[in-house]
Write a structure and sequence with these properties.
The structure is a single chain. This protein is elongated. The chain folds into two domains: about 40 residues; about 190 residues, Ribbon (Umud Fragment, subunit A). The strands form five sheets. Strands 1, 2, 17, 18 and 19 form a five-stranded antiparallel β-sheet that branches. A five-stranded antiparallel β-sheet has the order 15-14-6-5-16. It has two helices and 19 strands. Helices cover about 20% and strands about 40% of the residues. A hairpin with a 4-residue loop joins strand 5 and strand 6. It is an alpha+beta fold.
């Protein structure tokens, strides 16, 4: 008798699961496609903090192209094919093991580069970067930093900082790794703290802000940043 009851229960459970799958399979297939897309093709990443100012602001949501450099097995760091190499100046999203969190930084040094910084002035392979002051106030100096083949804005603090915290190297970037910096040079934990970034930890590249919410103004949208390009 007990055996017959268990068989009936299993039969009803099987029928219920079959009916549930039949009624909801389109939803689950759609959910799978969304998760697969976010894992392997493209995603949004939230900017939290000031380490990439003035390029990126706290509350920005940036587009992440996960096929910019590699085709990876979904949900892993295993590369199936290399599509292109990260280049100097790219803004990249990093799944950093040393930081134990996701980082958004700018590639400054590629494999083989010799990186040297003195009082926030970059020297790459013996060639000093060019700088132009764009604006200055009591808190920050906005500069245009011109790297080889790439120019972008960066931010320095107007307040006193130890020169030792603004200097680095010289150091050679190892094969398969990258040297990254935040554009807000005096307020960024980057390769100066976490060392070089292995290629496999680079999730993808970002070239645009999708939308932005201003935490200082009740999370109202910043209309001027909708679909704004990233230099």
């Amino acid at each position: 008798m007990l055996k017959l009851k268990l068989q009936n229960i299993r039969s009803r459970l099987s029928e219920h699961l079959h009916s549930f799958w039949k009624e909801n399979r389109q939803f689950f297939l759609l959910l799978f496609c969304i998760v697969f897309f976010k894992s392997a093709i493209a995603d949004l990443s939230s900017i939290s903090g000031a380490s990439m100012q003035p390029t990126l602001l706290d509350g920005d949501k940036v587009w992440v192209n996960k096929l910019a450099y590699d085709v990876k097995i979904p949900f892993t760091e295993i590369s199936l094919a290399e599509l292109s190499d990260p280049v100097r100046g790219d803004v990249v999203i990093i799944d950093s093991k040393k930081a134990d969190k996701r980082l958004v930084k700018r590639i400054v040094g590629i494999p083989g580069d010799t990186i040297y910084m003195q009082n926030n002035a970059l020297v790459i392979n013996g060639e000093p970067a060019s700088y132009e002051v764009l604006s200055r106030d009591d808190d920050a100096v906005i500069i245009l930093e011109e790297l080889p083949n790439k120019a972008h804005q960066a931010q320095l603090s107007s307040q006193f900082f130890s020169r030792t915290s603004r200097s680095y190297g010289p150091s050679v970037v190892p094969e398969g790794q990258y040297f990254v910096l935040g554009d807000n040079r005096d307020n960024s934990a980057d390769s100066r703290v976490y060392s070089f970034v292995p290629r496999e930890e680079i999730i993808g590249r970002s070239s645009s802000v999708v939308f932005s919410l201003d935490s200082d103004h009740n999370y109202l949208p910043r209309g001027e940043r909708f679909m704004a390009g990233i230099e």
